[in-house]
Structures are given as structure tokens and as C-alpha cells.
Structure prediction request, 682 residues.
Amino acid sequence: MPWTKVLIDKSDFEDTLGKQGLRGLSYRDALREGQEQLLESDPSVFLIGEGIDDPGGVFGSTLNLHRKFPGRVLDMPIAENGLTGIAMGAAIAGMRPIFIHMRVDFLPMCMDLIVNHAAKWSYMTGGKVGVPMIIRSITGRGWGSAAQHSQALHALFAHIPGLKVIMPAVPYDAKGLLISASADGNPVLCFEHRWLYDFTGYVPAEKYAIPLGKGVVRREGKDITIVALSLMVYEAIKAARELAAEGIDAEVIDPRTIKPLDEEMIFASIKKTGRLIVADTGSRTGSFACNIAAAAAEKAWHDLKAPVRLVCMPDTPVPASQVLENAYYRGKDDIVAAAREICRL
Amino acid sequence: MPQSKNKKLPADPVPRETELALMRAMLRVRRFEEKIVEVYGAQEMKTPVHLSIGQEAVAAGVCLNLKREDYVFSTHRNHGHLLVKGAAMASMVAEMYGRAGGCSGGKGGSMHMVDPSVSCLGTSAIVGGSIPLGAGAALASFLRGDGRISVSFFGDGASEEGLFHETLNFSSLKKLPALFVCENNGYATNSRLCARQAHSDIARHAGAYCIPSVIVDGNDVLAVHKAAVEAIAHVRSGAGPFFLECKTYRWKGHVGPDCDHLKGCRPKEELDQWMERCPVKLFKNALLKSGVLSVPVLDAMLKEIDAEIAAAWRAALAEKMPLPEDLYKDVYRQGIF
Ligand SMILES: Cc1ncc(C[n+]2csc(CCOP(=O)(O)OP(=O)(O)O)c2C)c(N)n1
Ligand SMILES: [Mg+2]
Prediction:
């Protein structure tokens, strides 16, 4: 299936799917096309965010949409908290806003409106009033972006009942999940990673939706299950290639949505492999990886042949110096090391 | 208290030494940031730099009038404020090069400069962060009665955050010794002020909270200086906070060493007009004309500044990189205090 393929670089795409005449789009263009089609098909959709109409266009993901949809792609004051409430107010009054932040790190400014209001509105109103709102934000990495510009906070939001959380890793999912999120009728946080933006993959031209809560097997294998989130999907695929050379056949699962989570897919895989690694872009304590490990311990215990291993970022803020950045980030090598360890047990 | 917009400034002549110090401070910030522009292409300074070239008069006009123990809180665009406040230049440079000997141990980079020895307790790259922190330090001084004042520097964009308004209200209510200095450069990243606020004077918010304010030409260092002297006297006297808005303009892009008009971020003519009104050039010409400065004195000043900068760069580059295990240090402060 072309849309399940993880293509590490553009030539990867051209050598495979491109040759079959399939259309390739970068992650940023997939996001842009998804939003464009939502704006086209649904007059209640509007985009709002700081500088979304500027020449950068949120790393290209909103580029020039303000020209095509004047009045529906709104720049805003630097006022994230209030504007979350305003977007939510519009949502409960029948609009479908997409609120866009250049960095995940600006979401803490919006905590009250997201956590105390948007997440609970449906429940507090006995299901009478919903909040059909998407909040997109992007995790940065590298060049000394440091503690306030590189956080991965998805687990914080997944913790809050009433929110849904998507983490598309490939262009196909970026577009399809955004389209379902817009139709979902609930507040959905979309966590993107800056390093995904240049990746190319197969993206159909038409408008399509990927159901929230359905994972995908990125690579089939029988020896070990690697559940990987966002950018970690690529690290996991690279790790699996390396492990294959050593005779370890890894299965890579991308949940795509972390809330709701496709537990069944993960458990089915563990049943086959008996081993689990979870790779997460967030720091370890309270990470989403911990949730997956807990679910496995509770519900797949008898299928596990070895301890679960987590590959998460360390419990430190993100440092600036490149030496420290290199020490901070976890990836392919850590996944390979963890796999070797638990496969030899 | 009504807002005293464009209040008449005192006509007292500024002493010659003060004029020279203002000139020197501006040149020092300008040359420092020009050095960053010069070296940045080599890609060894791996940190996002937000340059204040074009805005130096604000840092110079305000910070030269502060005492060492007065607090300064700043933003992502902090180099000028810290330098004029007296932060150690070499450790700022070392920080930008990710060195263990940098002012933040390589943990922070350009956006998170610190030097407690001159009462700079850290800078935030989350827009607006400097505002309540400055007021909080002012509250500390107020509670201790130690006579210090605290300055929050921030941009026009930051005045749109709720915490700006919450902080102004509380500071006014408690008559905190807080000076709010808004560097209104007309942009927040690439968004013009007129796309974000219905009015172009940030100081008008101060009036709503009964905080006196002045709007000055932020490219006229003498105007900033005179207004700062008055503002600081007001705050230090215990009369409560003061709000100083400096209208200015940044020459470089929001982040990085390049100009951004070619990318379509703003019209070239606008940049040209502001470059005509370069704060450094304007003051230099005025001082040359009045005879306070002569060409040889200016040359000597520049030579001295460039030597200081060269020495800071040498010292910074001689510092070691952190060790990978340093990653885990400083998450919590160690020891008993
Ligand atoms: C809370 C928050 N929102 C958004 C950003 C992204 N951002 C960084 S600087 C900036 C513009 C700030 O404008 P202003 O306060 O005028 O300061 P200037 O950059 O002009 O000095 C923005 C939007 C951020 N760092 N923090
Ligand atoms: Mg500004």
C-alpha cells in the first residue's frame, strides 16, 4: 500500500512510488493541500495563527492560502491564550477553526482555554455543545533552538480527557488526519515535527479522510514490535533496516493518533513478536511511551517474552549547545541497542 | 493619572561625559552585533540570533542610567540590554558558540543570556515573559525596601499578551518600582503592528492602568536618555511604575543575520528610510557637529571597542565545549541556599 510507505528521502520516493506514476507531495504541501481543500469544501473552516499569511507561511504549510481565501486565513496579535478562547467561541458557535502555532512551546500559553474549557465543554454541557477545533503546532529541533523552542508536549494533552491528539508522521497522514480532525466535532491537537516537513510521500489529489484512532503497520516483522511516534517512525524504520542485517526482524507500528490509541493493533503485534519497544519524541517521565508500556503490561502481559524498553528523550529541558543537543536526542542507534538487548534475553 | 504623551523633556544640557558614554554604548552594541553578522555564515555559532541593529539607542539610553543592582529582564532580542547593563561580553559570546564557559553553560544560547552579577537574572524567548518577571523582581525590592528598581524590556508584540495587562494592573495597584520599556519596532516577526492592534501607540495601554508614560523617538539616544532619567527617578522615588515607549525599527530580519526585504517581509523603502535615521549615525553626526566628539576620538573609541570584541571572541573560542554528560546538570540547582 503506497500510503503506508515511509520514505526517508525524496530519491526514495522517486525510485519507488514515483516510478509507478503516483503523486508525491512533501509533508508541508500535504498539510497545505488538506487545509486548502477544507477551506474550499466547508465555509465554516477558517485558519488563524501568528504570521500565517507572511512570506514564510508557517514553514510553507499555509503559504499563500490567504490570497486564495481572503478573510478566512487570519493573522493575529501575539495573544495565544485569548485567541484560543476566541477560536473556541467561534467553534461552539458553528465554525471550524484551525488554530496554528509555529512551535509547540506556545501551547502552554493556552493551557486554561484548552484544558479547562475546550476539553470539557462537551462533557459539561451534557453533549449539547461541542468544540470542532483543530490546534496545530510544530516541534522544533536543532541549531540551538533550546529549551523554549523544541519541546514535544503531546503527552500533556493526551492526558486530558476530552481532547484528541494526532501525530502524523507521513504526508499522506498529515492531509488525511487533518481532514478527519476537522469533521470530528471535538478539539483535536495536531502535533507536527519540523523535521518531517521536507519528507515526500504519496498523497492523493482528492480530499480523503483517515479515521482517528487507527494505526498503521509501517513494516512487518516477527521478532520485535517497535511502536514509534512522529519523527521516531523514521528512526524506527532505519533501525529496522539495520536490525534486519543482524537477523532481527522488527515490526514498526505508527499509531498516527495517540488519543484515541489503536491498542488492538499494538497488542496483535506483541502477540506475534513478544517484544516491545516504544520510541517517543517527548521526555521520558509521564511520556506517551509510558502509556503504551502500561497498556502492554496490563493487557498483553502474557504475550511479552521480555521487558518493554522505552526510547524517549531524557528528563532534561532541551539544551542549546550542539554537543548537548547530540547528547539529548535519541534515535535509530538507541532503538537498535534496545532491540539487541531484549532480543538476546 | 493621565498619560503624559510626548511630555516636554527637561532642557538641561546633558554632560559631555554622558554623551560620550551613550555614543560608546551604542557603538559597542552595534559592533558586537555586526561581528555576529560577519561570523554567522561560518555556521559555527549554532544558535538563532535576533539582532537589535537599528535599535541600539534604547538599550544605551536606558541601561546606562541603571545601577548595577537594578534588575533587567529581556527577551529573545537581548544582546544590547545585557551588554550595556555590563554583562560579561566574552561569556555571552561563549554562550552563542555553545561553550561550557558560556554565561548559561551552553544550555541557553543567544535567546537565554544571563549575568546575575549585574542583576540580569535571565531572558525569556516566550513573548511577554520578561514583563511579569520584571514586575516580580520589583515586588521583591518593594517587599525588602532595598531601593532597587526593575526594568522589563519587551517588544510591541508582547503588549498583546494577556500577561502584559495583568502585570501592568498589578504593578500599578501595588506601586511597584518597575519600569516598562517597550521597544516598538512596528513588527512582531513579519506581522505589522497595524495587523495586530487597532492603534499604533503601545503606551496608551499604560494610561488604562493609571501608569504614567512617555513616548519617545527610540532612534534619538538623547531623547531616550532624558526620558529614562525622568522615568527612573519616578520609579525610584516610590511613586510606582512608569512606562516608556521607544519607537524604533530593526534592520535585520526577525531572526538571523540577513535583511529580509528581498523575501517580501517588508518594503525596502521603509527600511531605507529608517536606515537614514540610524541612531548611531544621527548621534555621531550631532556630536561631531557640537564638538563633543572629534574624528580622532571617535576612531580611538572604535578601535578600543573592536579590540574588546576581538578579545571577547578569542576568549570565547578558547573555552571548551560542554561534555555530553553536562546535559543532565542544572535541571535542578544543586546545593543548599
Ligand atoms: C508566546 C509566544 N508566541 C509566539 C512566539 C514567536 N515569536 C517569537 S518573537 C515574536 C515576535 C515578537 O514581537 P515583539 O514583541 O514586537 O518583539 P521583536 O521581535 O519585535 O523585538 C514571536 C511572535 C513566541 N516566542 N512566544
Ligand atoms: Mg516588535
Remarks:
- The domain at 216-343 of chain A is CATH 3.40.50.920 (Rossmann fold).
- Chain A touches chain B at residues 50-51, 54-56, 75-82, 105-106, 109, 143-149, 314-317, 319-324, 326-328 (CB under 8 Å).
